Amino acid sequence: MGDRVAMVLEGGPSTVGIESTVLSLAGPEAILLRPGMILQAEIEEVIGSICICRDVTMGSAHPAPGMHRRHYSPTTPLILVRPGQPPSGGHGVRLQMPTDPSQYAAVLYERLHQADSENWDWIEVELPPDDPRWAAIRDRLERAAAR
Fold first, then answer.
1. Model-level pTM?
2. Integer Cα distance of 60 and 28 in angstroms
3. Which SS3 state, helix, strand or coil, does residue 126 take?
């Protein structure tokens, strides 16, 4: 992590990779604050219908970590491209990512961090499908690409 933190406790590779699903049960209805690898449909099977709220704020603080518009962003500009779109010009890299959502989530931050350390002008990632199984990954990519 370079000079961003004084110490890192290394626990080995993550089996999930991205942060957990965060659900608020504080009010009259359940609110999905942050999507994770537990899908909305899986939660609804257990507790019934839930509300999805992306930009919930309570005063000036977000009710859960990872809800800022920009989150876990590489220093190098991250560009999200449509599948099949040709690479941008210049000195950059397009990351080749797994086609399985669980595998993708497990390596996302590792691959972004590695590419960020390689002095590219830009990093490109193809947007995964707009499908509930990919919702958490799309969320993290959009936050990482926000400028």
1. 0.75
2. 22
3. strand
